[in-house]
Amino acid sequence: MSLGSRYSDYDKFAWIYNKHWGDRFVQRALPVLEKLALPFIQHNTDILDLCCGTGQLAQILTERGYHVTGLDGSEEMLKFARKNAPNAKFILDDARTFKLPAMFNLVISMYDSLNHIMTYEELTTAFLNAHAALREEGLFLFDLNLEHGYKTNWDGSRGIAEDDHVCVFQMSYSPEEQTARLDATIFRLEDNWQRSDFTLIQKCYSKSEVQSALETAGFIDINAYAYDRQLGWMDLTKESDRAFFLCRK
Prior knowledge:
By secondary structure, the protein is of the alpha/beta class. The protein is built from seven helices and twelve strands. An eight-stranded mixed sheet has the order 3-2-1-4-5-12-10-11.
């Protein structure tokens, strides 16, 4: 993924993602939002959903009275987002290059979306863009996969098989390169069976790298958390699969 091109790797994944993951990830994101961010903003305020995917989270937030703008680099993902969240606004753009005025009280980026940014410099640029889009005192909340999560979860094959589609994933993690790779093959039955193949790459960042990038972008009050649906909130450790970062402009 080069900085000069919009990140559109999810185009081939959009139909499967919308069907199997959009609603599931919302249920994981909502407890985090309800604990860390939503109590501290007004219900009629503006939220930027950065890397918004297929829009299920945007829909729930608009139902709760927020004014939501979703931004994503995948045109196919946004086609579903506009159907799933008809009252939200959506923008086709890249987290590393977008420019929006300082009109949002909260910027969120969930589902390890920012792990797809492959260099520290580009991650810092994305944080700068988020900072510029926030009003003073605005909040930025996002999550990232951590190395323990990659070593634990990104190993081996996964699959889905239904009457009209089959999807197979091969997942791997390279500690030397600090990168994770997902290779997917999808078969969909339309007039006949159609095959598509794609690869998604993620970059593993340490807590210290993320904090440094946030500080460079101008954020303050930076905090990192771990969350488990069964155990609740925990301190971030080397055994944490995912980190939730909250900071303020």
